[in-house]
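Supplementary notes for students who missed Thursday's class. We covered one full example, reproduced here. Read the sequence, then the structure, then the short commentary at the end.
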Amino acid sequence: MKKVIVIGCPGSGKSTFSKSLHQITNIPLFHLDMLFWNADKTTVEKSVFLDRLLKIMQHDEWIIDGNYASTMELRMQACDTVIFLDYPLEVCLNGIEERKGKARSDMPWIEPSEDDGEFIEFIKNYNSQSRPKVIELLDRYSHKNIIVFSTRTQAEDFLIKTQR
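Structure (token representation):
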């Protein structure tokens, strides 16, 4: 495990899991949100985002956390391990609720306390719209080390075993 991508519905805990994996393995960690977003909630040009990502992917080791469907296949091609946090909707919505108003190292701003209706709608539609595309990619890259967790406990158990 040297080149790892961590994917899953927003709110699933990709960044938290990635930080723990980084602490255990000492593999450099990169958050796609930090490559894509500015502190004022504007985005960088797509070419800038892609350039930043490609520079990271040239390293010998990395953990890249985030979805970004436009680059997911590129990252799957380059990685040796895919970790998919495939949690129920309620778990992800609770994850979003728990991070409101908290500073996070994986985002250049603090989440506001009010709901972002469009973002919540995206999360509610993740299993019907985004997840099938992820599953299709996982099938296409089934020769990779693919690890799917359906509960937080499974992910935590994996981290404990990885520590040993």
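Commentary. The radius of gyration is 15 Å. The mean pLDDT is 94. If anything here is unclear, bring it to office hours.
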